[in-house]
Amino acid sequence: MPALNAYRQLEDIRYRLPTYHPHDRAPQHADNILAIANDFDVFWFDAFGVLNVGPVAIDGAVQAVAALRAQGKRVFVLSNAASVGKPHMVERFAGLGYDFSAEEIVTSRDAVLAMLADYPRDMTWGLIGLADRQQDLDALGLRVIHQSDAYFHERVDGYLFLATADWDAARQQALVAALDARPRPVILGNPDLIAPMPDHISYEPGSYILTLPDALFANVRVCGKPYPAIYDIAVRRLDHYEPARTLMCGDTLHTDILGGNAYGVRTALFTVHGFYRGLDYAHYIKDSGISPDYILPQL
């Protein structure tokens, strides 16, 4: 079962993730987000499994976000989606019925764009992901070669792993061999291992990069939850930030809950539509020791 395999992989590489801070707060159960809204001013929503499942908005989620806005709450998407630029993300959420502005959508791609400033301007980057809708990379003046290039590994100085489109075991084997022969930086734009779809599970970039051997992972930098850079960006978009009144809402213990906890905010695990759908989430909370502050079925 993909979710169980992903859970085991995440536990195996737990030492690579931010440090979880144990607490003695027993998870509180709530029927929906409005039942606990008075305790928070800022809501950070994961996308897949909380707001949508693939191309479909989860029942009641659009209305719940609108109700929070009506109460004067600040609402944001915090997503590990890194495949396309921000205008396309705004369009994607609008198509689902949401009214998130560009400033309210914080993605791991934002962290990727910021991280690129740490590298020499004359580097040639190998793009693993979609060939189109990359205008923000073009705007930075980057030299980028797409994974489809016949001499891909010979021509690049580092890799941007943003999406798994057309990626497969053979391409992964070639990447590992190239990194082993000539170590180069890898920026991982999406640390998720899997993502829920209406009728299947999608394998995400983290399943290929977070699980690399230690020697190769030494040259990897990770953007997105549970790592702190995406939270730093979200905080900079707030006029006032109070961690205890900020709620990270997600469907994955090792990504949303661990990440929010490590950053110092409160967390809520959503159980019906995402990573733990059909599973005994309480068993995995106990097994991992990663405990959310709240447990909800959905928004």
Automatic annotation (TrEMBL):
Transmembrane segments: none annotated. This is HAD hydrolase family. The keyword ATP-binding does not apply. It comes from Cardiobacterium valvarum F0432. Signal peptide: none annotated. The keyword Hydrolase applies. Keywords: Hydrolase. NCBIfam families: HAD-SF-IIA (TIGR01460), HAD-SF-IIA-hyp4 (TIGR01459). It comes from the Bacteria. One of its GO terms (cellular component) is cytoplasm. GO terms for molecular function: phosphatase activity.
